[in-house]
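testing teh design pipeline on a random one, pls ignore if ur not involved
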């Protein structure tokens, strides 16, 4: 019998409040990621009324910068910090929706609270919460979809499909869990259940409308940036830097390691063992079958990516911990060694986060606040040189108040480092600058070029951009906080 609507117990409210503080702290202390460049820059450009694919390159499905654009209007010059805080709050929403879905599916309050709180002990979840990327918006939407599916009914199934479709419009890998959930729903002799899945499919199609509309405005750019680039460019880059091994079967080992840093792996083992022992009870129940399908779909989407990165595991986690709550509430006795293993995996999940706090303490300032300070220093240097036009940089997360990224650099270092990806006419049409297609920059030089943003992770690209600045007649005007500012002679 599924839990009905009831007041949130005081213990649950206190736990969610504590988790909110913890997640916001992670957003402050997580070291900056090179990935944040394209998401911060794209959000700022979307806030100016520009559209992905048509006006600037965007390497994902397009919902994220459109949804986050108001943050630039409200917190101009502080967009990196605002996006990190927004992701932390979306992380809290994800935890709460997992709790709500588990309660509706029949888990006790204690089991649902414990299982949902375990999300924050997963390295993949904590990593995504702490950066200004496009991970938590689709995760929260997927969790909303799971919460609606537990309610049942045609209209709620339509809403669930809409949530899954919007998740795929924010990050294309979420299309795989959506497809898995649809297949799990039609794999039944229940005609009413199959009809409800048609409502789910209709909702997914509606949720994908933002992607369809923006793709229609610039179909060739969309195909190249959101489909072809993720399939081809990472393989080229990792082969060039001597890490082609990460593109092969070794990536599955990396996936297992990521799951093992936290309780995701041991939770998967327990759920697999229980469902194998009682297949009729687990696969015969539509809610459990749906959750299993969503979790498997998330793992499949993670394994399809070459190479595997830690954030690819996130789609599998919300349904996994709904299932964990159901398993925990069944009252089966656990051996002491098994409980010890659970404790060990959970503790392992906090090790990377502890490292972030130690790093922040050693440097005397949380990385997110240090980035704010560096952005302000860069802004002062730009104003001292009377720079007014957009600036070219591979690190859009540092663009200060009153300035914007040149749209040709919206994708940060990720498009710039490619070779042979676009022809000259395509680079011009799609507003792209790559290291082998630089002529477009000479046709319309930016107000300034900023280098030195990635001295450790992308030194070759920084050197190349600096050489390009010299070739275009720019001079070194200032060096501030590691940045080198180039302005026109």
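output:
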């Amino acid at each position: 019998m599924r839990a009905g609507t009831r007041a949130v117990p005081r213990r649950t409210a206190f736990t969610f409040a504590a988790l909110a503080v913890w997640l916001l702290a992670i957003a402050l202390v997580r070291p900056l990621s090179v990935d944040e460049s394209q998401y911060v820059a794209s959000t700022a450009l979307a806030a100016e009324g520009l559209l992905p694919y048509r006006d600037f390159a965007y390497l994902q499905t397009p919902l994220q910068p459109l949804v986050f654009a108001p943050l630039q209007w409200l917190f101009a010059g502080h967009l990196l910090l605002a996006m990190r805080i927004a992701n932390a709050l979306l992380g809290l929403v994800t935890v709460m929706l997992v709790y709500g879905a588990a309660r509706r599916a029949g888990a006790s309050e204690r089991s649902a609270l414990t299982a949902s709180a375990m999300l924050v002990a997963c390295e993949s979840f904590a990593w995504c919460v702490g950066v200004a990327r496009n991970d938590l918006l689709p995760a929260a939407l997927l969790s909303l979809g799971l919460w609606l599916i537990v309610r049942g009914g045609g209209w709620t199934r339509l809403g669930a499909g809409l949530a899954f479709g919007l998740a795929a419009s924010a990050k294309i890998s979420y299309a795989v869990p959506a497809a898995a959930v649809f297949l799990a729903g039609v794999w039944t002799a229940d005609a009413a259940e199959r009809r409800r899945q048609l409502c789910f499919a209709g909702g997914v199609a509606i949720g994908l409308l933002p992607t369809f509309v923006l793709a229609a405005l610039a179909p060739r750019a969309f195909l190249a940036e959101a489909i072809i680039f993720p399939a081809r460019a990472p393989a080229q880059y990792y082969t060039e830097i001597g890490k082609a091994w990460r593109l092969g079967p070794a990536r599955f080992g990396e996936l297992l390691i990521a799951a093992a840093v936290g309780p995701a792996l041991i939770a998967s083992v327990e759920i697999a063992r229980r469902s194998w022992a009682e297949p009729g009870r687990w696969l015969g129940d539509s809610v459990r079958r749906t959750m299993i399908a969503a979790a498997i779909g998330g793992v499949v989407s993670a394994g399809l990516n070459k190479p595997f990165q830690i954030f690819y595991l996130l789609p599998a986690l919300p349904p996994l911990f709904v299932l964990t709550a159901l398993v925990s509430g069944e009252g089966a006795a656990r051996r002491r060694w098994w409980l010890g293993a659970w404790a060990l995996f959970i503790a392992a999940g906090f090790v990377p986060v502890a490292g972030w706090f130690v790093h922040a303490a050693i440097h005397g300032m949380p990385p997110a606040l240090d980035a704010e300070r560096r952005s302000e220093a860069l802004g002062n240097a730009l104003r001292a040189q009377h720079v007014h036009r957009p600036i070219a940089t591979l690190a859009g997360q540092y663009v200060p108040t009153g300035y914007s990224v040149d749209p040709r650099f919206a994708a940060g270092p990720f498009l710039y480092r490619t070779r042979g990806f676009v022809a000259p006419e395509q680079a011009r049409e799609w507003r792209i600058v790559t290291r082998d297609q630089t002529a477009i920059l000479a046709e319309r030089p930016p107000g300034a070029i900023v280098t030195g943003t990635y001295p450790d992770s992308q030194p070759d690209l920084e050197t190349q951009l600096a050489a390009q600045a010299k070739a275009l007649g720019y001079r070194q005007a200032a060096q501030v906080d590691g940045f080198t500012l180039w302005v026109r002679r």
